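3-dehydroshikimate dehydratase: structure, please.
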Amino acid sequence: MKTSIATVSISGDLREKLAAISAAGFDGIEIFENDFLAFDGSPRDVGAMIRDAGLEITLFQPFRDFEGMPEPHRARAFDRAERKFDLMQELGTDLMLVCSNVSPVSLGGINRAADDFAELGARAAARGLRVGYEALAWGRHVNDHRDAWEVVRRADHPNVGLILDSFHTLARKTDVDTIRAIPGDRIFIVQLADAPLIDMDLLYWSRHFRNMPGEGDLAVTDFMRAVAATGYDGVLSLEIFNDQFRGGSPKSIAVDGHRSLVYLMDQVRRREPDVRIPLPEMPDRIEAQGIEFVEFAADEAEAEELARLFASLGFVEAGRHVSKDVTLWRQGGINLLINTEREGFAHSSYLVHGTSVCAIGLRVADAAATVARARALGADTFDQPVGPGELAIPAIRGVGGGVMHFVDEKLAGLWETDFRLTGGGKAAADAGLVSIDHLAQTMNYEEMLTWTLFYTSIFATAKTPMVDVVDPAGLVRSQAIETADGALRITLNGAENRRTLAGRFIAESFGSAVQHVAFESRDIFATAAALKACGFKALEISRNYYDDLEARFGLDPDFADRLRAENILYDRDGEGEYFQLYGPNYGEGFFFEIVERRGGYRGYGAANAQFRIAAQKRHLRPETVPRR
Ligand SMILES: O=C(O)c1ccc(O)c(O)c1
Ligand SMILES: [Mg+2]
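Here you go.
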């Protein structure tokens, strides 16, 4: 599989783009003419610079408004093409993209366009070059790959081929199976892009909102399956026009791009088993079975405070690590760790972020296979020395550089092996928390696509639609990644500014991290009562909220009173009901939540988030409330 990415997809100057693209593992680039024009160097120098970066130029583009022109435009278009052929030869590339004409003076007519391409093909062939024709979704006469293919077919010249671009085909909802009838060797290059579904003008959508395959909502996998079925085995090239990417990190966008192609082709291979796809073998997407543990890094003083917080939630100290300063706190099926080691990963995490979640452990069927898939998708693995007799838990790096461990059956004795379990005390404190319902990771808005792709490509998960959460100081966008059975649920919250609670958390904990952990109760009212006995202080919710709730859902006044008395938030949809109880803010804005799901409720109480955030803001230490 040969991979390529258009230089427009990445931010920075040409040199920065090349470094990032090459480091991410691409074989080549599509050079956008403007990137070249803006660069102060001769075409030969640019070509050499690209090859020195270990990359080939897979395509030169775009060449506009060529086919179907009346004279004198027609002659001028051919002159322009000859100039660009000169440039291509100096750069060292043999393929030019001609996009369908948008000029109001163009005449249309399949045969006229085909004749123009036959002549262009002859001129290209004289120099050992090739031209490919792409239908722009907003082309004046040709805006569909089927018509572009008909032009190419009638041009009937070996140096003239078709260029497919998933965006143009999918944006117009053209049936992708029409691609299956095109001979694979007549397709000169395939451009790939996804996009979020937004109802807007096609040109504007294409030029500003494209994203990597798998990051948006288009059926790029179905498109690519159809392309693969033609026998096409040439370059797969990302062509992503995205305002956010233009200002983003060249490195992470290039890494995301490469990951998106590996993920895409892995999916295609599994769904088109008869098509040979040259991609290293890797395990299929991993079924995550739940969260085995959450580990906090702290110093000794803060560890005591954290321990008090755990105790107030009904957890009991259940053991100590055999060789490390790590304590285990347990309740139901939940394991929380407090790590106060003075060296190693947890300690460096503490030094950078303060008291915070430094690692999580996921239950999977096969930990080694999970790491193998993550590696194949370009994730960084994580290793740390283990003491004699202790178990090595395979791990990778996740959001904010945090560690994600994988625990499988082979590690079933983990707690008994690595910990001196003290047992006891369980019955005394239990507040009915049975498992972790979800984790919430807070990040800058620009990172959300990166981590959505990370989770959905490694794990058999789906993303829910993005929702807007209103913080009094700005918007926070929230999207959940979840398994079909809900065993793993992670919400990603993207802050657009530093004054929101989420933005403040990122600023004060120096990076993206887990901002809250939500525990599952099977009886929220019993839990609320038990927690009171443990000394738990619930976040106080505005009384006005309950008046509205009662009216909105037509709640029984007694039921509304019970919610109000316990500061429990409530939501309901066609499937079921949702109850939420919040603890106090801890440290830089970390908190615990307790939820109960009744019936088939699958959401996260987005409608309540605004009121919860307002309540949390009222409880912030006054000196830390950011000034405007
Ligand atoms: O937006 C454009 O003009 C444009 C140009 C070249 C392409 O390959 C494309 O997909 C879009
Ligand atoms: Mg294109």
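Notes: The first strand starts at residue 2 and ends at 6.
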